[in-house]
Amino acid sequence: MHRARIASSRLSRLGSKCFESKLPRLQSPLIRAAASFEPSRSRTMQFSTTTTRSTDAKSLQDLYDTAGPHVHPALGRITEGVMTKGHGSYVDYSDGRRYLDFTCGIGVTNLGHAHPKVSGAAAEQCMNLVHSQCSIALHEPYLRLIEGLIPIMPDPSLDSFFFWNSGSEAVEGAIKMARSVTGKQNIISMQGAYHGRTYGAMAVTKSKTIYSEGTAPLMPGVFTIPYPYWHQCGLPRDTPTEDLTAHCLNQLDLLLKQQTAPQDTAAIIIEPVLGEGGYVPAPSAFLQGLREVCTQNDILLIIDEVQSGMGRTGDYWAISESGVRPDILLTAKGLGNGFPISGIITRTEISSKMKKGSMGGTYAGNAVSCAAAVEVLKTFKRENVLVNVKQREKELFSALKAVQADQGVKGLIWDVRGKGLMVAVEFAKNERGKESVPKDMSKRVAQKCIDKGMLILTTSVFEVIRFIPPLNITKEDMAKGCQIFAEAVKEVIREG
Ligand SMILES: Cc1ncc(COP(=O)(O)O)c(C=O)c1O
């Protein structure tokens, strides 16, 4: 068995002991400190007695007390205190808390925290060449990464690579590329989409107002159509997928006739699985419909796989199932397993229309991040990660469906959906009717999971919890996470 696997199963045994512990709840000084500058969030937490404490917890606490209040207050966080270590599917905090991580740092550490091979490759690269600057010279990991990505592209036409640091930058680059090569301005994005926090990315983000509230004017020339998700279409919950697809394609047709003519429209940007908008896979027929419209009208199709890509859905790319050819494919997050790297991938026929020097960036395609990403690709093969995703996907769905069917849950889970290990549970929330879960259900369930030793996130403006466990998670850890979730849901419903 691989060393990391052995370590991870040993840790998972330790973890389960800590969750089952009946020790009294402790209130750490660190949490008290946190409460002093986040007074609205009073919580109790159950701590592990078996975790590694920071060797210098006292000075870390002093640091937290003194530097913590200087962290920008607009940065939201789901836990307090200092995370000191990540190992496989677990993270440790300086006060002894240990959590099973079903967030992967929002879909990033997909091969588990501090994967020994990936971190090892980065460390080795650090001792050779940290930075070469892509406008000065190419380095070996840059080229190796291209070599590793070419065979897994969802379409062989995707043969031109530009690496950057974040998902938002990839979105910016794609918009720039689309405008530059088409000579057209307008971009169509989806209601509910999330593409990032920089100005162009914010402009095409339509999942929550908080991301751009009070920051106008945003980049102009952005138009939206609904994503085939019943909420976004204002249609009943049981609307058949074909009808949602037809509705959205019809809206696109109208948009191109009424608001942005094809000759003014540079690109359509879409997440093949809506991420921050609720973890909703787009029907293949919808993606195929977009492809057709783009091809007919010389509009570029930008597929944003920043969250859904790199194996998250059980294939390297979520778009593959539809057979749709992206004109531009965006990747980030899982590509570096925590080392910052993103990719804008297109075909040479498109990229060659841009002037030399129009793309670049100080840290674009950093050597250490590229070396980590090369090792990520190797690890997928060596550890049969995609096979694990398929196996764990079945277990996750069956556990969540069992919660949905549980009598104690009283039919208050409307939906269990997703692909691979990008899965969501949507709770019933009907403003006017009777069929509603207790107020703030998803937030309360997430908080209860955290109290029980598992990090998990909500998503969207609806009552949705998302599951983003590591792609190489063990069967035992998956079962443990599902158990924690089931208990949390039932407890919140009982509390009302
Ligand atoms: C689909 C999608 N696109 C773009 C981004 C922005 O990526 P980043 O946060 O790395 O800028 C995200 C981040 O969550 C995302 O999910």
UniProtKB/TrEMBL annotation:
This is Acetylornithine aminotransferase. It holds the Pfam family Aminotran_3. InterPro entries: Aminotrans_3, Aminotrans_3_PPA_site, Class-III_PLP-dep_AT, PyrdxlP-dep_Trfase, PyrdxlP-dep_Trfase_major, PyrdxlP-dep_Trfase_small. Keywords: Aminotransferase, Pyridoxal phosphate, Transferase. Belongs to the class-III pyridoxal-phosphate-dependent aminotransferase family. Signal peptide: none annotated. GO terms for molecular function: identical protein binding; pyridoxal phosphate binding; transaminase activity. It comes from the Eukaryota. Its cofactor is pyridoxal 5'-phosphate. It comes from Coprinellus micaceus (Glistening ink-cap mushroom).
